[in-house]
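dumping the sequnces here before i forget
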Amino acid sequence: MIPYATTIRNGCAVATRFITNTPTNKMSTIEDLKTAVINGKRKNVKVIVPELLESGLTPSALLEEALIPAMAIVGEKFKNNEVFVPEMLVSARAMKEAMKVIEPELIAAGIKPKYTALIGTVEGDLHDIGKNLVATMWKGSGFNVVDLGVNVPADKFIEAIEEHQPHIIGLSALLTTTMPAMKEIIAAVRAAGHSDVKILVGGAPITQSYADEIGADGYSRDAASAVDAAKSVLAAA
Amino acid sequence: MTSKECVLQSLNHQQPDKLPMDFGSSFITGVHCSVVAELRQHYGLEPRPVKICEPYQMLGEVEADLLDAMGLDVQPIFPQRTIFGFPNENWKPYTTPWGQEVMVSEHFKTTLDDKGNTYIYPQGDMDAPASGHMPKTGYFFDTIERIDPDFDEDELKVEDNLEEFGLMSAEEENYWKEQAEIYRGCDRAISMHLNGTCLGDIALVPAPFLKNPKGVRGVADWYMAVADEPEFAKKLFDRQAEIALDNMAKLHRIAGDVIDIVVVCGTDFGTQESTFCSNDTMRDIWLPRYKKINDWIHENTKWKTFKHSCGAIEPLLQTVIDSGFDIINPVQCSAKGMDPKLLKEKYGDRLTFWGGGVNTQQTLPFGTPEEVRKEVLERCEIFAPGGGFIFNAIHNVQALTPINNMIAMIDAVKEYNGN
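..and the predicted 3d for all of it:
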């Protein structure tokens, strides 16, 4: 019996044991979890995560050795046009499936992420795919991410800063008509005395020069680059 | 040469007497109602509230007097029903959240929440869940994702996503008969949106026109469903194409001689930086279904086929051509790889560029009138020679666009045309 059928998707060999339900005695490995996340196989993740935890691996190990590297690979593939937004979404969904189990265990064990991030689409704007992908990529690089949703006014950001004490804030806007809201939010956050928190901006019409003009600390042109951009402004802090 | 002749000449890749220009002939080449009002005032036209021809994006109708004043060459025939599923009829006054007096359909029914957000209802039925949401400080609606509680992403059913694709109703047939009578003999080119030929348009997936949609109706869910289950998308698009062919045959019998341009599909294949899928995926899932629709059109009508896709789609343009499209819009030159010169050189003899006239993310809303003029003239110099270019901005002109920039754009096209 062949324990693993292999198929090729996006240039990667993928174990399809869980999809095909081929019986096997082979235990899942960290590598299987990584592969399942890269290929967006949510159902496989659902099977693999409890198996790995049962085998004695810690939730931290799953996060550090499978989820974070997997999302980094997805980000790289996205930057290289090997995968696109839909594939990123399915990988993000697979990662979230794993986090549903892992996150409560991490919290119970008192393990705190190094960085906390707030993210939201600015007031007047309801678009959230880009914002959600950035949130997932940040989560996938080990950040604690508090997502404030869409149409978020300045006072909500300020309240959330006071509650969560984030290291970084992500502001998203898709529309030319809502770009000015970014400027207002940055000014309001600074005026409220939060001068240490780093602010990153992004969205289709946003450019580096606009980010500079409105006093943002950083800018990212896409979700994959948002991880590098966040790490870069945080390292400079 | 009439406006219509100029447009047709350009669509046939021949040099027209003047560069044709469009604003308002479709829901992706339109103008926000606030800007339409300012244009009417600028040109000294009869002061009257602007009609909302497309309530989702709050586009204002560019009526005949404004078409004349701006020197526009394309006349729309709007669909019988709006994206919220109601006909535009029995106009009534409405004050927008930004305080503009406009006219809307009697079926344009809205409520306000305590935060000042506006909600609109499918088919004007306030007993159904709202299907559109305009934030207090917004200028148009976005769709509300109404997910059927029984929806199971592991059990996708094509029928659930087919509810909106039916055969043309008697009501719609009559509408087209009336419209054909009104516009037969019009000296502007006639453009219209085909019904049911948008294959996976993300604005339509949430079905803001349906009262209780079933199936895959979330935006992210849709992208994931197509990535996970390409066979589902193929089956759905096959069924859509079959239904569309019947409807197109009927439309052709009623109004075929009146129509010049049909907007076939508005599905976006690009983001600012990249495509939404690989070329192989587009050729596998979309191309055969597009080809079926476009081949029928080319074999049976004189209509030119119009494809809209925002974003960095240069790597997909050969596939757009192979799918049987004559026209690409909005030609988002601000996206990665969408260099105007490269596009014209590589595809200009086979594709008409309908758009690309000015950057609506930077220059038009935020530049000076002189910067707008300079960019418009540059784009005209690149795209216009030999035809295959209809001047339009890149996608709809958005709210808050300065009127002086708008006028600078129109005047630059007139300057290019030697007026």
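The first strand of chain B starts at residue 50 and ends at 54.
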